[in-house]
Each structure stands twice: as structure tokens, then as C-alpha cells.
Amino acid sequence: MHVRTRNSVERCFGVLKSRFRCLQTGFRNSLENIKLYIVALAILHNIAIIFNEEEFPVEEEVVEEQELQPIQAVGRGAAVRAAFIKENF
What we know:
By secondary structure, the chain is mainly α. The chain is about 65% helix and about 0% strand. The chain has helices spanning about 1-20, 20-25, 30-50, 75-89. The two termini are about 40 Å apart. InterPro entries: HARBI1_dom.
């Protein structure tokens, strides 16, 4: 029962995230306000369904591939990391 309910909730969040992009980037407000925003967006989504509003087309972000450069480890952190890797791997 828990898994089915969780799947339903995850699908609902996916639908809301596809319609309202602000949900993907996150909010920088208090938790109380964020809860109100999510409820308001769900209401707006239901209104959009009633009026047969289409979702806006999603524009995929074009990300240029960058050549990754190895990170040079410096200082005490590098020594601790190297010791951890040697001990555990």
C-alpha cells in the first residue's frame, strides 16, 4: 500500500514539475510559504485541466560539453582522502 501511494504521489509531483518549472529549481522561502505555493500550483493545475490548457513546450537546455580537468589535491584534505582510499579500496 505504501509503495502504491508513494508512486502516485511521485507521479503527481512529476506532472506538476513539468507544468511549473519553478518546482524544479526550488524555492528560497520559509517552509510555511512553500507549502502554500505547492497547494496554489496544484489548484492552478486543476484549473488548467478544467479549461483544457496545454502545457508549455519544454525547451531543452543545451549544455556544451567541457573537457574535465583533473582536480589537483592540495593540503591536509588530500592526505586524509588518500589514506581513506588506501585503507578502504
